[in-house]
Each structure stands twice: as structure tokens, then as C-alpha cells.
Amino acid sequence: MEQTIIQNDRDYQQLKKWMDPNHKILLVCDGSIGFFRINAFFETYKDKVVRFTDFQPNPDYNSVVEGVKTFRDEGCDALIAVGGGSAIDVAKCIRLYAGMPGNGAAGAFLQQESGDTGIPFLAMPTTAGTGAEATRYAVIYYEGVKQSVTSVYAIPDTILMDSSVLKTLPLYQKKCTMLDALCHAIESFWSVNSTEESKQYSKKAIRQILDHMDGYLANEDTANADMLMAANTAGKAINITQTTAGHAMSYKLTGLFGIPHGHAVALCNRVLFPWMTEHTEMCGDPRGAEYLKKTLIELAGAMGEDTPEAAAARFEELFRRLDLEIPCATEEQFGILKQSVNPVRLKNHPIPLDEETIDGLYHCILRTK
Fold it and tell me: Which residues, 6+ apart, have CB-to-CB distance to 118 below 8 Å?
């Protein structure tokens, strides 16, 4: 599915053009929109833009149901999402569920098959990390249980890239979101679901991230714009392949230690990457161990290195250069971690990981109290 990418300009002329056909728009956003230039633009369209802000990070299904109700009650016929992964995921689900019968009570929308509602949908990412604007996936929670919603009809038709939103991000958040995008591209490259198309997206994203990292961290306008595009490209890669063990092992780190997602994923991949280079003979990818070895060499090339070992060392050097914390864990916490990993996510990893191996990896990922 091809997306149209439009750029920010002085007075959002391209966005105005997108809004021209007399749409009434549901704008899904959180409080951060007040810090962005685009907020003033939407203030001039109060007659045709209805704001929906009733959701939290890790959004709840009931928030989506309320969003669908607002969409219907206000007579909306188009969607705009401005924000990070949560805002975009909520809007994706509203798009899918708005065409379903009923009011979604008792999880009813989750039980129905999604189709193409034809609702015009524009997303504007406000971080350069998740790539959510490029994927068919959304995550919401129903009665405290994570629900992975997947549909090609969730993908926004149009993306607005406005690099001015990155100017006010704290440096630590910029580091974490950049690492999320880089890990998306790396994991997609070695995923058992990789294709030639996904690898091209991965290579492009990796090169964009590494080439523009310094300028992005220095908050230069051009580099910020390039990093937004890199995150989008990495999102296109994982839209094909999904993520692998680095992501699967990261989620509980965020839960136990309160570290942001991109930080947690990088902690895992800085250990997984060199471990994989030493264990290619254990390959579970149907394409075989030689294919995996070749893939890791290609990945090294995308990172500007001659060997997988050198590429893994470069990732480690990058992590240390960003001066990110490595948490300490108790043996009780290690026990929780090794049992927390989603086996579905692990199926995408090219080398099978059993509980004992996962435990050993976590002992390398974290410091021991």
C-alpha cells in the first residue's frame, strides 16, 4: 500500500489541500499538541475539526470505543492523528471500528473482522522512532490484556512530516526514539520474514540513521527531517517482517525498570547482536545457516562495516556513546524476565531461544545486584 508523504511548509498549504473536500475531521491528539506549530493551524478550523484526547499511553479499548462514538456523533468522515504511537494506534483502531455495527460493548469490536472503511486518514508523527504511521499494527489494552490489532486497512493513507515537532523533544527522548527506529531496521533485516523489499527499506533506514544521528542529536533542522524519514522507512520494513527477539525481550524491562521502549530494545540488541554472530550454526530460519551468515554480512555492510562482529561492536559503541543506563536486577527479577517473553515474537527470530538461553542473555543485558 503506497502512502502519500507531504511536507510541512510555512502555513501548511499541503495539509489545507488534503482537507479541502468538505471533510469533518476527528483529530486524535494528546496534550503535547499545544507545544507544536500545527496547533495554531487547527485552531483556525474549529468548525470542521473535532478534537479527541481521551486516551493515555498504552491506550485502553474503552478509549477507542469512546473515540468511535465521538466520530459518529459529530458526523466526522475523516481522521487525523498527531502524536506518537499511542495517538496513531488509537486513530488506527477508530478507523477500523467506525464501520462496524454496534457500539463495541464488551469487546465486540475486537471480535469482528475489519474491512476497508474508506475513511481518509492522515497521520503526523511527533517523534522519530515508532514508525507507527507506516505499519498495519496497533496495540490497545482490553481489561488489562494487550491486544495486537492487525489490518492493512489501519495504515494511514497520508503522512505529514513536520520536523519542527522534534525541536522541543528532550535529548534523552530523542536518543530513545532514534534507537527504536534503528532496532526496527536491524531486527527486520535478520527476521525470518525478511524479503528483498524489506531489506531495502532496512538498509536505507540504517544508513539514514547513522548518517544523520549527530545532526539530529544536535537538533539541526535538516537532520531532524531526515530522522523522521528514517523512522518511517524502518516502519515500512517491520510492516513486512515484524520485530524479533530484541523487542520481545524488551517489554518487561520497561515494566520492571521504567525505562523507555527504545532504551530497552537497544539494551537487548547490544547483547543479541554479538551473540548471534557466534551462534549462526543454530539457525532456525528455513533458508539455512549459510543464508543467515550472508544476511549478517549484508547487515554489516549497511552499517558501514566489513564483518558482523565489527557491526555488533559499532552498535555497542553507539549505545555507550549515548551514555544510557544499564539497570541492575535481582535474581528474582531475572526469574520474572525469562518467563515474560512472548513466544510469538520469538518465532520471527532467526535463532531459536529457549528459556535457559534467554536467562543467560538477560544476565548479560543487565547488571546483577
Answer: none
Q: How many CB atoms lie within 10 A of CB 123?
A: 24
Which residues make Cβ contacts (< 8 Å) with residue 43, sequence separation at least 6? none
Which of these, 327, 170, 171, 160, lies nearest to 232 by C-alpha position? 160
Q: What is the pTM of this model?
A: 0.95
SS3 322: coil
Are 171 and 17 a contacting pair, CB within 8 Å? Answer: no
Q: Residue 2, Cα to own-chain centre: how many angstroms?
A: 18
- Contact in structure between 352 and 244 (CB atoms under 8 Å): no
**Which residue has 518467563 as its cell numbers?**
339
Query: Which amino acid is located at 280 in the chain?
Result: T
DSSP state for residue 340 in the 8-state scheme: -
pLDDT tens digits for 35-88? Answer: 999 999 999 999 999 999 999 988 999 999 999 999 999 999 999 999 999 999
Compute the chain's Rg from CA coordinates: 21
